[in-house]
Amino acid sequence: MYYDPIKKSLGEVFNRTPWLRRLFYYLLDLLLLRTWHVHRELRQWAKGRTDEALNILDAGSGYGQYTYWLSGLSKKWQILAVDVKDEQIADSNRFFRQIGRVNVQFAVQDLVLYQEPNTFDLALSVDVMEHILEDVEVFTNIHASLKDGGMLLISTPSDQGGSDVHGDDETSFIEEHVRDGYNIHEIQQKLRTAGFDRIEAQYSYGEPGQISWRLSMKYPILLLGASKWFFVLLPFYYLVTFPFCLILNWVDASSKHDSGTGLIVKAWK
């Protein structure tokens, strides 16, 4: 299953007007469990900082939903969002200019090469590292780009079934991934190698989150991959499943998990 063609089709639908794109972000925030976990950590980081002039790096910005959310917390924060996809970056710059968020800039950059020494107070990497083979190089670049005391926040699949892989004989549900998931100790060691000295890691996507992910993401994407006509039926599908997914997301994001298919990692310079 290739996510990119489906994501591109959805992006084309919701990118037609600023209002539709805002709606798209809102729906992603509700449906994607990783967003619940990431927002929780960002709220904690942001406490007492909204009046400060800070620099933030969205390292692998995708559609820009996390940059949109962060830029709404404080106009004093300057946010640089980078990705490798030219068209996506151009669309994002156009949208953020349309809605008047001048504290945001999108740019095409390769995280394996990009480094801006001692610039950022926060770096965010959500579902990015599983796509990049040279992960230690990226961690090293981000470490160099953070100011002293700056934090890197990572959301990525774990080796406990991340990418929907549960055994050695299975392949990733998302074939664009270069690794199925990180061992929790492995990613901590790689961050230490990159120069980070304080690291906290915890599992996300415990049992409630795994059920929600299948209902809200896996099954709809499989059906969309089989036929684009399913897009017409999506509202009716979510009318039934959406309330259950919200409850499961809340339970997962409010709980500590001994294992899970996702990881939330924080590392400080």
UniProtKB/TrEMBL annotation:
Gene Ontology terms for molecular function: methyltransferase activity
Bilayer-spanning residue ranges: 221-240
Taxonomy, superkingdom: Bacteria
InterPro entries the UniProt entry points to: SAM-dependent_MTases_sf
A Gene Ontology biological process term: methylation
Keywords: Membrane, Methyltransferase, Transferase, Transmembrane, Transmembrane helix
Protein name listed in UniProt: Methyltransferase type 12
